[in-house]
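Researcher: Sequence recovery benchmark, item below. Answer with residues only.
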């Protein structure tokens, strides 16, 4: 697999994003057990990017982008507006938007 982000998952709730990442990782680990049967399974990296993401983790994402990036709408905005971070989004092929509401009370 290439070192690029191909899937962007945008979720308004950080906890939901963390749940997605944890669920994905556990399912992928079960699927990737094919290596025990002699099958070559690619590494698929996931990362969660929120306002609480440590600077060292943000820099690591720039050096070696995750294949699947989970983020909040607020952090997505920052990714779009910051030149270095925007490079992560260059190769995204799939965007999943989870629970977008229009606000306003109704």
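Model:
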């Amino acid at each position: 697999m290439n070192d690029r982000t191909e899937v962007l998952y945008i979720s308004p709730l950080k906890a939901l994003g963390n749940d997605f990442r944890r669920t994905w990782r556990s399912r992928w680990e079960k699927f990737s057990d094919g290596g025990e049967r002699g099958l070559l399974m690619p590494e698929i990296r996931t990362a969660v990017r929120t306002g609480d993401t440590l600077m060292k983790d943000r820099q690591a994402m720039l050096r070696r982008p995750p294949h699947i990036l989970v983020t909040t709408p607020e952090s997505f905005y920052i990714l779009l507006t910051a030149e270095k971070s925007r490079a992560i989004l260059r190769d995204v092929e799939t965007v999943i938007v989870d629970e977008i509401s229009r606000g306003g009370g109704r």
